[in-house]
Design a protein that fits this description.
Elements (H helix, E strand, L loop, with lengths): L1 H21 L12 E5 L8 H12 L5 E5 L1 H10 L4 H10 L2 H4 L11 H7 L4 E5 L10 E3 L2 H10 L7 E2 L8 E7 L4 E5 L1 E2 L1 H8 L4 E3 L2 E3 L2 E5 L8 H6 L4 E6 L13 H12 L4 H6 L3 E4 L12 H16 L2 H11 L22 E9 L3 H10 L9 E2 L6 E3 L10 E2 L1 H13 L6 E8 L2 E8 L5 E10 L3 E12 L5 E9 L3 E9 L8 E15 L2 E21 L3 E19 L11 E13 L11 E11 L4 E2 L2 E2 L1 E10 L1 E3 L3 E13 L10 E2 L11 E2 L7 E3 L3 E13 L3 E13 L11 E12 L2 E10 L5 E7 L4
Parallel strand pairs: 1-2, 1-12, 2-6, 4-9, 12-13, 14-19, 24-36, 34-35
Antiparallel strand pairs: 3-20, 5-8, 6-7, 6-11, 10-11, 14-16, 14-17, 15-16, 18-19, 20-21, 20-41, 21-22, 22-23, 23-24, 24-25, 25-26, 26-27, 27-28, 28-31, 29-30, 31-33, 32-33, 33-37, 34-36, 37-38, 38-39, 39-40, 40-41
Helix pairs in contact: 2-4, 2-12, 3-8, 7-8
């Protein structure tokens, strides 16, 4: 995502230079009339505007003014700052719209713990207590859209006069819901204007500016040709994407009725504005709606816009004499150039901190060693502070892309801002670093549901409570209900130093069936109380390192035995363990990756008195797993994986022994390792290593067929690992990847159990 945004930022910058040189409306053609393009609202259907713009460029029609509403404001706003039609075409096709039009977090900007939450809970929602939060005025807060607009409008994010400061004069429309009045943006911050114009009521949160609460401009003026006329347009070319009027038989569904209410309200001024339009391109969008953001829909809508505009070719040619040009006239065209990525460091002349508290500024200055001779200066505007007079020595007197990423990540992870931006403005021989924070994260509630054929239904609830103080902290509470019950509380402290210490307490009620070679050996029901003190907790982009101490207390409620194959002595006991754990994950998808790698390793030393176990040497636990994805073509992926767990010591408590089975690590019990063809928890020897090969074929957009083959060796003694029979298992699976998680099932067989195993899973794993 970041590379895409850098690419289009470079397009804008290069196009802007060209536009500023060449796009004076009447330059070189004295007396030429001004031409305006007016783009209507319509959600995803507005992609058709791009096709129509292609035809206008092909026809050599100059564009001197652009106005738009909703999606028309987005396409028009970007066109006005330098995007040509081909650039817009490329931009909309490469976006992940399932991410952009939701409030999902960008995986590349999250810690591994946050990534896991996003792939555990299907429902996440902010909880506002006390003061009204205008971000809660819609199902979608729209923070990803706002961040995308901010990135795409590089160079035009400050307050501007849209007629004077943009390459092509521009205006867009929003609706003030307080008095149902029309508000026309002729100035301000361009990304904010675009975001307000497309804020569909109830779907997207409104935008508050001063005493106004702004939503989609289509409610008052969905086709703003009158604004173009007021801006001095002599000739108006309009593009609309509204469908045919609905009849009574079309009103059979709730969404149809809601859509009709919006369409009727969008008729304000519509007929009057059509009457002053010289060329009207009405695109046929039948079969698509405002939410049709699939690649197939985007391709079709752009093509339909181009085809419909071509039907008006003769009308466009007839406009040229009226405009005052002939076929030799060539309007300026903005060509994108290859992007340049900031790899070299640039000298920093000063730092500006926007929308932050003094405590936040001090936190950043101390963490990144930004020091100055004088006190931090309050500019008096929107909690803005700046530092320009540095003391010596200064560690961060220069900046590169890596430091930019660290600054924005700290704002999001340590200071709990939903969005953050770090932009560079030329300043003499260097650059001024401007750090802008978005809205604070609110308390968050999470909900996860799942069903599988092994433990049936399960429910998990979660809540995050960011504590905004001089030393920021975060409280994370989790409750799991089902056959396995769990409650956990976790406190993370975000010091200015390199580490974020963690204190946690967990209660688990485990009801576990242990199998040996496919037959039930025993069932054990026990409570586990666990406390962790983790002073070393390092988080980077794809990496997490934790080192600390754990206390476990195990209270066994009962054990139902069958034919014991092992000497299992279950008694209440407590343990202390020293632990070091490292995680790395650069995969592009949590469940169905096509690129990247995942690595995890852990060492722990288990004792009952901080030194040994039953007056003997403690138990050493070494475990690791590594997986890498290789994609052949665009749909087929090969995923090799190696993993294992080795236990050393004269005593191994049964609850910490090796177990295998299922599709995931640590699903039923913490030390569980997956194995193809085995669904139940199988007890294996203390030394276990395995290799797995998975073949993944994507069918359509979200359908996946999987084949998995696993081989393993086990032994009670490490030197005898290769002397025993090889375990083998295979599995075939089909899954549909949905917003609720993977839905599907698998069938497998292993020479360990010697019987087929069928497993059905509905929902995220937890």
């Amino acid at each position: 995502m970041k590379k895409i945004l850098l690419f289009f930022a470079a397009i804008i910058i290069s196009s802007t230079v060209s536009a500023q040189q060449d796009s004076v409306p009447s330059s070189g053609t004295p007396g030429r009339k001004k031409v305006a393009v007016v783009l209507s609202g319509g959600g995803a259907k507005g992609m058709a505007h791009i096709g129509a713009l292609k035809v206008l460029e092909r026809a050599g029609i100059p564009i001197d003014i652009v106005t738009g509403t909703s999606m028309g404001s987005i396409i028009g706003g970007l066109y006005s700052i330098g995007y040509n039609a081909n650039s817009l075409d490329s931009m909309v096709r490469v976006q992940d719209w399932s991410y952009v039009i939701t409030d999902k977090e960008d995986l590349s900007k999250q810690s591994l713990a946050d990534r896991k939450k996003q792939n555990t809970y299907f429902f996440n929602r902010g909880i506002t207590v006390g003061k009204l939060n205008y971000n809660d005025g819609g199902i979608i807060q729209g923070k990803n859209l706002a961040e995308l607009f901010q990135q795409l409008c590089v160079g035009y994010t400050d307050s501007l006069d849209f007629s004077r400061d943009l390459p092509i004069p521009f205006a867009c429309v929003a609706t003030n819901v307080l008095d149902n009045s029309e508000y026309d943006f002729h100035s301000g911050r361009l990304p904010q204007a675009m975001r307000a114009s497309m804020a569909i009521p109830a779907a997207f949160s409104p935008v508050r500016i001063g005493d106004m609460v702004l939503v989609d401009g289509g409610l008052r003026n969905n086709y703003p040709a009158d604004i173009a006329r007021e801006m001095g347009a002599d000739i108006i070319i309009g593009v609309t994407v509204q469908g045919e009027p609905k009849i009574a038989n079309d009103m059979g569904r709730t969404m149809s009725i809601l859509s009709q209410i919006i369409d009727v309200n969008c008729k304000n001024k519509y007929d009057e504005n059509l009457a002053i339009t010289d060329v009207h391109v009405q695109v046929d969008t039948k079969g698509y709606n405002a939410a049709s953001f699939s690649l197939v829909a985007i391709d079709t809508l752009i093509r339909r816009g181009e085809e419909e505009a071509m039907k008006h070719w003769d009308e466009l040619m007839a406009l040229k004499p009226r405009i005052g040009i002939d076929d030799s006239f060539q309007p300026p065209v903005h060509y994108p150039i290859n992007p340049t990525v900031m790899t070299d460091k640039q000298y920093v002349t000063g730092y500006v901190f926007e929308n932050m508290t003094p405590q936040d500024v001090r936190f950043l200055c101390q963490k990144f060693h930004i020091r100055n001779k004088n006190k931090i200066v309050d500019t008096g505007i929107n909690q803005s502070y700046h530092i320009t007079d540095f003391s010596s020595p200064l560690k961060n007197d220069s900046i590169d892309a890596n430091l930019q990423q660290q600054l924005t990540t700290t704002l999001r992870m340590d200071l709990f801002y939903q969005t953050a931006e770090c932009r560079l403005e030329p300043d003499g021989d260097g650059v001024r670093v401007i750090l802008t924070a978005g809205n604070r994260k609110t308390n968050q509630a999470h909900l996860g549901l799942r069903y599988d054929t092994e433990e049936h239904a399960a429910l998990q609830l979660g809540a995050d409570f960011p504590i905004k103080a001089d030393v920021p902290m975060n409280v994370d509470v989790t409750l799991r209900l089902g056959k396995r019950m769990m409650a956990r509380g976790e406190l993370t402290t975000h010091f200015r130093s390199f580490t974020c210490p963690i204190l946690s307490y967990t209660f688990r009620r485990n009801d576990v069936d242990i199998y040996v070679e496919g037959d039930l050996d025993y069932n054990v029901l026990y409570n586990q109380f666990q406390a962790d003190v983790i002073p070393i907790n390092l988080n980077f982009r794809h990496f997490n390192l934790q080192m600390g101490l754990r206390w476990d207390y195990l209270h066994y409620r009962n054990a139902l035995e069958k034919d014991h194959t092992q000497n299992v002595d279950l008694k209440n006991e407590h343990f202390f363990s020293y632990r070091a754990h490292v995680d790395y994950n650069s995969e592009d998808n949590w469940y169905f990756p096509t690129r990247g790698a995942r690595f995890s390793a852990e060492y722990s030393y288990l004792t009952d008195n901080f030194a040994g176990l039953d007056d003997k040497k403690g138990m050493s636990d070494v475990r690791a797993n590594w997986r890498k994805s290789f994609t052949l073509g665009s749909r087929f992926t090969i995923q090799p994986m190696v993993y294992g767990r080795l236990l050393f010591g004269s005593i191994t408590p049964p609850v910490f022994g090796n177990t295998i089975g299922g599709d995931w690590f640590g699903h039923y019990v913490e030390q569980q390792m997956p194995f193809a063809g085995i669904g139940n928890i199988e007890s294996v020897d203390h030394h276990f290593v395995a290799a797995q090969l998975q073949l993944q074929q994507r069918m359509g957009t979200n359908h996946y067929a999987l084949i998995r083959v696993t081989g393993a060796q086990q032994s009670g003694r490490l030197k005898e690992l290769l002397d025993h029979k090889t375990l083998f298992g295979c599995q075939a699976a089909y899954y549909l990847n949905t917003m609720f998680g993977p839905i599907g099932g698998s069938i497998g067989y292993s020479n360990r159990t010697k019987k087929p195993y069928i497993f059905v899973n509905l929902g995220f794993e937890f």
